[in-house]
Amino acid sequence: MAKNVNSYNEDSIQVLQGLDAVRKRPGMYIGSTDAKGLHHLVWEIVDNAIDEALSGYGDKIIVNIHIDNSIEVIDNGRGIPTGMHKTEHLPTPQVIFNTLHAGGKFDEAGGYKVSGGLHGVGSSVVNALSEWLELTIHRDGKIYHQVFKNGGKIIEKPKNLGDTKRTGSAIKFKPDPKIFSSTIFDYKTIATRLKESAFLIKGLCIELNDLRTKKSVSYLFQNGLVEFINSLTQGKNPLHDAPFFVGNSQGIQVEASIQYCESAYNENILSFVNNIRTRDGGTHEVGFRTAMTRAINDHARMVGALKDKDPNLDGADIREGLTAVISIRVPEKLLQFEGQTKNKLGTPEAKLIVEQIIYDNVKTFLAERGQIANSIISKSIKAAKAKEAARKARDDVRMGKQKMAKPANLIGKLVPPQTKNPQLNELFIVEGDSAGGSAKLGRDSKFQAILPLRGKVLNTAKVKLEEVLKNEELVSLINAIGAGIGSDFDYTKSNYRRIIIMTDADTDGAHIQTLLLTFFFRYMRELIENGYIYIATPPLYKISYKTGHEYAWTDEELREKVNKYKNVQIQRYKGLGEMNATQLKETTMDPANRTLIQVEISEVSAAEKEMMILMGDDVDPRREWIETNVSFDFDDNFTLEDVEQYE
């Protein structure tokens, strides 16, 4: 093939003007164009309103989800400046919403000393990725109004709508469907984030109204982080009341609250910087963990719980059963995030400051609350002993010495793939031997493995690792995945890039899915966080007609196909075992035809809380959750009898 040597020249160099760069590469600014990226637009505008509250202006924020899936954020802060910008010679709101890197964070004299959202990058990115954006400002006794369309390309002239006595800003926008895979906002996702923000700022009222469904909620917390902790540890048998720690150094303000729980075996640390959740941690989390380890080890030695000959307690053992919220506020001159989405703090000063403040506060807390200190140290020592017992059990499993688990017998049930490349291979966890037989015959032996499980696995929400390692089914699964377990777990060593839960489409199958997901969340969470876990979706019906057959996954789909083909025969699958290998392959296992549901964790703390409600010992919260979230309405227009008349 002839090469065009002149194809790369001066004309190949493009200069993206204004907000074009954002529309060209939206992932650089909001992480993705899926549901996460869509909701990130809301966070950017809400964070701007929160900046006003952090600076002492305004005490209420209203978020409205409109019927057309546009979002409106209203605050009662000072209102965005509306005069002409002295260097750009344009109205200041137009500069803020149409120019990258223009905002109040850059001028500490009159702007924000502490800021998370930025009047500038965040606002202009939202404008760039919106079909339209409408801005209303109440300031200096006047109402200012301006509209941007088509990602900020069309700018309507600002208007004066009259006089006002109030102050604040209202920003309403509709995400561009040409940019996002979906533009439907999720009420629960937004409510969870807003509730977190209200916890972090005492006295700030945040209201959410969903005009699509008429749902509404209002958050206002006077005890801040303590109330936050109590909401996270509900049903986990706390060992003590949650203390509130606070400190300040070099302009960095630190607030934190901690609580140990008897019925919890994982650490759950939520960190925030300038009210923004740092999901990937950062220097402040490193400082917090270091401080907790030092403080508890030092106190344990001081009271004689650890002798001179004893090694220090490991940080992971100290944090077993710990729930913590740490919120710091960093001046703009010190603030360093890794990326525009602000998921990880990089400020080096934060580590030492957080470490010293938390260490001093925790040491004082332990000294003043001797009985609680003894309980925490005892729990940490038990965790260390349990970890050692689990290590020995894992060694026994690897050596084939674990009598109770009998891994050698069960691992023989694994039907491995021919390919040795983990990035290509898939593991199907199949309910029952009958379905396992069909799956073995229907699989692509090159890259698909089958592991049948017998019955329902152990509920791991309320057991320790050493008990997990005595369970035959789970030991078999651990060995098949091959990435270790507990503190030794490393998801990058998994034998399979996709781990697919394939169960019957009934209540028992759903229960098995829940038990397996609980296990993965509790002991192999990184598999979920990195997109390794999937759920298969087998059909409910096979519809046969004169010239062929099709499948239906829902009653609605069945109704449509029955009405389409008229004279049909319907096979209703009550379980995977009723499908032969060909049917299972063409509907559920073949990558060319199947539909998989990828399991994600949108919010760890919310997932942890709901898992404990659903899988824990406390019945009343579970009943309340079911009554609130499960609909027991049935379709009276199409019943089982309607299906059976075709059979």
What can you tell me about this protein's structure?
The protein is of the alpha+beta class and 647 residues long. It is 37% helix and 19% strand. It has 22 helices and 22 strands. Residues 1-6, 8-16, 401-412 and 634-647 have low confidence and may be disordered.
Compact summary:
With 647 residues, this protein is of the alpha+beta class. The protein contains 22 helices and 22 strands.
Q: Structural class, please?
A: alpha+beta
State the helicity in percent bands.
25-40%
Shape: globular
Number of β-strand runs: 22
The proportion of strand residues reads 15-25%
Oligomer: single chain
Keywords:
single chain; 647 residues; alpha+beta; nine-stranded mixed β-sheet; 22 helices; disordered N terminus; disordered C terminus
Give the arrangement of secondary structure elements.
Blueprint: H1 20-24, H2 27-30, H3 35-54, E1 60-65, E2 71-75, H4 92-98, H5 121-128, E3 130-139, E4 142-149, E5 154-155, E6 159-163, E7 168-175, H6 187-200, E8 205-210, E9 215-219, H7 224-232, E10 244-249, E11 252-260, E12 268-273, E13 276-277, H8 283-302, H9 315-318, E14 322-329, H10 348-368, H11 370-399, H12 407-411, E15 426-431, H13 433-442, E16 448-453, H14 465-468, H15 472-481, E17 498-502, H16 507-523, H17 525-529, E18 533-536, E19 541-545, E20 548-552, H18 555-565, E21 569-572, H19 581-589, E22 596-598, H20 604-615, H21 619-629, H22 640-644
Parallel strand pairs: 1-8, 12-14, 15-16, 15-17, 17-18
Antiparallel strand pairs: 1-2, 2-7, 3-4, 3-7, 4-5, 4-6, 8-9, 10-11, 11-14, 12-13, 18-22, 19-20, 19-21
Helix pairs in contact: 3-5, 3-6, 6-7, 8-10, 8-11, 10-11, 13-19
